[in-house]
Amino acid sequence: MEEQLKPHQAERGQKSTLVGIAVNIGLVLVKGTAGWLGNSYALIADAMESATDIVTSIFVWIGLRTAARAPDHNHPYGHGKAEPLAAIVVAFALVGAAILIAVQSIQNIRVPHETPAPFTLAVLAGVVIVKEVLFRRVAQVGHETESSAVKADAWHHRSDAITSLTAFVGISIALIGGPGYESADDWAALLASGFIVYNAYHIFRPSFGEIMDETPEGDWQQELQTLAMTVPEVKGIDKFRVRKTGFEYFVDLHVRVPGNLTVSQGHDIAHAVKAAILDARPAVYDVLVHIEPV
């Protein structure tokens, strides 16, 4: 069962990523054109953020395809680390986009310019709706597949929605305020860059933890220890470790058994513990059980 899980998860993640790429190509064209014609740097900055979405989504797609590859001689534990690596690339790309937007916003604030055109508000309202819907759909796929790369891709869509929303507010202030408020559009873009950096950290932190074999979120230890204790002759648990690699989890544990058992009996107990965990958690790829006599 667990051998079929990873290809299915990878396929779902890849499909959601390709949909995001297609949507972002259209949004870059719409926002870039509207920003140029409507004299709105916030909208142009928004288009730049969508352009980074395309690039990073390609990295996510590559990472998902690589993570789904079967183990080989050089990678006996599989290629799952490619998945959080792709998420980290997304995080750094977001930071780069935020810096670029912030620098250009500051330059525009210092140089007087015209108030953005009113029609840009309609464009931004549509963009916010599209990106929020896309975020929710991709986030759901990321949650169901437990993919850090897909979750990162989802949060990139959310950061784009936030950028569009701040641009909407900035342009509204510029239009309502009239003369003297023209730079509200640029202040909105500057504020959006801060939100983008926050989202980048939100993506980077769990992905880096996965690279460092950090204990996964959730009550894994208690649940799996309880399962191991249901196996006859298991008297206790000495050590327990869980790490996530791509779409899968690896479990290492030391179980205490009576010291008068034969090697064959200890071997059977280890297999029974492994089977109990694999049956309960299909996402677990392998379980290494060490027998401790008591």
TrEMBL record:
In the record, the note on similarity to other proteins reads:
Belongs to the cation diffusion facilitator (CDF) transporter (TC 2.A.4) family.
- One CC-aspect GO term: membrane
Compartments (UniProt record): Membrane
**Chain ranges passing through the membrane:** 16-37, 43-64, 85-106, 118-135, 161-181, 187-204
Name the UniProt key words of this record, in alphabetical order: Membrane, Transmembrane, Transmembrane helix, Transport
Domain named Cation efflux protein transmembrane: which ranges? 18-212
| The organism of origin for this protein | Spirosoma linguale (strain ATCC 33905 / DSM 74 / LMG 10896 / Claus 1)
* Superkingdom as given in the UniProt entry: Bacteria
Membrane-topology descriptor: Multi-pass membrane protein
UniProt name for this protein: Cation diffusion facilitator family transporter
Against NCBIfam families, the record matches this protein to:
CDF (TIGR01297)
Q: Which InterPro entries match?
A: Cation_efflux, Cation_efflux_CTD, Cation_efflux_CTD_sf, Cation_efflux_TM, Cation_efflux_TMD_sf, CDF_Transporter
Ranges where the Cation efflux protein cytoplasmic domain occurs: 218-293
The Gene Ontology terms for molecular function here are:
monoatomic cation transmembrane transporter activity
One Pfam family here: ZT_dimer
